[in-house]
Amino acid sequence: MEFRSTKTQKKPPMKTLCCIGAGYVGGPTMAVIAYKCSQIQVHVVDVDERRIEAWNSDRLPIFEPGLQEIMDKVRGVNLFFSTDVAGAIHRSEMIFIAVNTPTKDFGQLGGYDLSAYESVARTIAEYSEHSKIIVEKSTVPVTTADKMRFIIDANKKRSDIVMEVISNPEFLAEGTAIRDLEQPDRILIGGLDTDSGNSAVSALVWLYEHWVDKSKILTTGLYSAEIGKLASNAFLAQRISSINSLSALCELTGANISEVAKVIGTDKRIGNKFLNASVGFGGSCLEKDIKGLVYLCEYYKLPEVAEYWKQVIIMNNFQKERFAKNIQTTMFGNVKGKNICILGFAFKKDTGDIRESSAIHVCKFLVEEGAHLFVYDPKVLDTDITRIFPTASCNRDPYTAALHTHALVILTEWDEFRNLDYKRIFSRMKKPAFIFDGRNILDAEVLSEIGYKVCSIGMKI
């Protein structure tokens, strides 16, 4: 679907591009571009030497299904990782920016910390000898492109150098990032409606057309693209908080949230995606983007709109707190001195990322109440867990983690948790044995027959 017409490129608009930022977005995105566009030299640069070393090693800094296979085909062929930021900028016709844009946790003004973005803008101006296309890949507040263009224009070496800034926000879900890149729902590209802006958008369309059908490439205005990413994540988070709010009501009334979700999801106007009740959403994007949206609404004097979106975060925090407190209440009002097995620490399956994971919030409550934690996650590094909870015992085997514990707490929906031998686990647990299913992935009736006291989200057992 093309919102804005773009010109067909008669000749390749670029031979070399680079990405500044070798994180969760930059690394996988550039790997797929290199794989799909073998004639283009792709350079990924970062000032973090250890991160670059990891990308050049046999142990990648992130886990994503399918990423290693692509890296094996393109790394050292037309995909290169280095700390040579200046050199990459100098030789590239197109520059993607995928640096971190965290929510501010300091100072008087809310919103995003764009200090890294500003630094990159100055660096691009310093090392650019010719005109280039700058692509916003990180999630940023609306009008960030204007600020970047202003900084670059104020610092560029010559007045005839044109730096066109366009927006191409990522829509990657951790755990399915490679699939999302190879088979995207849509590619969003936004630019100014000027000759230079439209030419830059057309160049990026040409790049994606190597593997994405043009009907899935949306070309919009610059500001629509910038705000579109925030809005998309806000709507996803809103659905999760909405179903979780109903789960609390279901638990008190005897209704089953899975049945209620099916009723809702069969309405074609609503659909059935993101209607699985859980302990709450996590990750680096959803809460950050909602906070960014709230800040924008407050900045533009829309307090009612800001308060509306704040409630999504409030409900998410309520769900995590409610789940944690229910563990204590169900275990006779006391977890002090009790051994609790935590199954899953990542914020979702198929990733080792723990940023804003619900597991952190639940475990923090349990530790503060005196519980002893025994943690198993197939992908999260032990050091990432013990850095936050030094007294936690990390295990590479779920059966060892569950040995002699009073309760199992499922906090990540790893597929392997669906197929564990729960009879074996039950026989080696202290009694009564509890299961708190924070992802609703287990059959509560079957577990109850084994002998467990089962607590699932949104249903009264």
Annotation, overall tally of beta strands: 14
Number of helices: 17
The quaternary structure here is single chain
Shape: elongated
Mean pLDDT: 93
The proportion of residues forming helix, as a percent range, comes to: 40-55%
Supply Rg.
24 Å
The N- to C-terminal Cα distance equals: 48 Å
The SS-based structural class is: alpha/beta
Largest sheet report: 6 strands, parallel
Strand adjacency order, main sheet: 3-2-1-4-5-6
List unreliable stretches of 5+ residues.
none
Classify the beta-strand content into a percent band.
5-15%
Brief synopsis:
The protein is of the alpha/beta class and 461 residues long. The protein contains 17 helices and 14 strands.
Overview of this protein structure:
Helix content is 43%, strand content 14%. It is an alpha/beta fold and 461 residues long. A 6-stranded parallel β-sheet has the order 3-2-1-4-5-6, with helices on both faces. A 6-stranded parallel β-sheet has the order 11-10-9-12-13-14, sandwiched between helices. Helix 4 crosses helix 5, helix 9 (222-253) packs across helix 11 (286-299) and helix 9 (222-253) runs parallel beside helix 12. The longest helix has 32 residues, at 222-253. 44% of the residues are buried. The model has no long low-confidence stretch (mean pLDDT 93).
